Amino acid sequence: xxxAQFDTFTFMLSALMATLMLGLGVSLLFRVVVxxxxxxxxxxxxxxxxxxxxxxxxxxVRNRLRALQAESQQLESQRSRLNSEVQAxxxxxxxxxxxxxxxxxxxxxxxxxxxxxxxxxxxTSGSPLLKPSSELYNPIWRHLNLAEIWAFTPDEAANQxxxxxxxxxxxxxxxxxxxxxxxxxxxx
Length: 188
Hints:
57% of the residues lie in helices and 16% in strands. By secondary structure, it is of the alpha+beta class.
């Protein structure tokens, strides 16, 4: 072998050896260095995915919180409104409790064509209805008493009123003027 051929052969052999060494280095690089980098990249990708899921859940929680706050404000306004209604009702109850009771006596039964006539009924000052020692004593006669009489005419109503509240027992009656309420159907 001539020296030129030997030099070419040596050069080729050296190039082949360098390529093999380079290939071995690259393969070691891919085998040792790249897998942990890929694992780290996947971990970063998983972390980013977890971050995005956490951010999405955060938005859901924030929206739910806003909805709950709006509902809370609505309930608070309803509570405030109901409290004011309760206070108004308490005032009405107190006013009604301070006023003497009204007693209503219903005479007759509502029938088609009849009208409801209203009369004021009271006990006279000397009446046994107002004397606690009397057998006829009833404390309701110290308050306003009304009679609702169902009759076809005011005269019939006055007759029924005299029948149920006779003068000789100490009743004083006054049929109130006005438009009587008429029964037009049987639904009453």
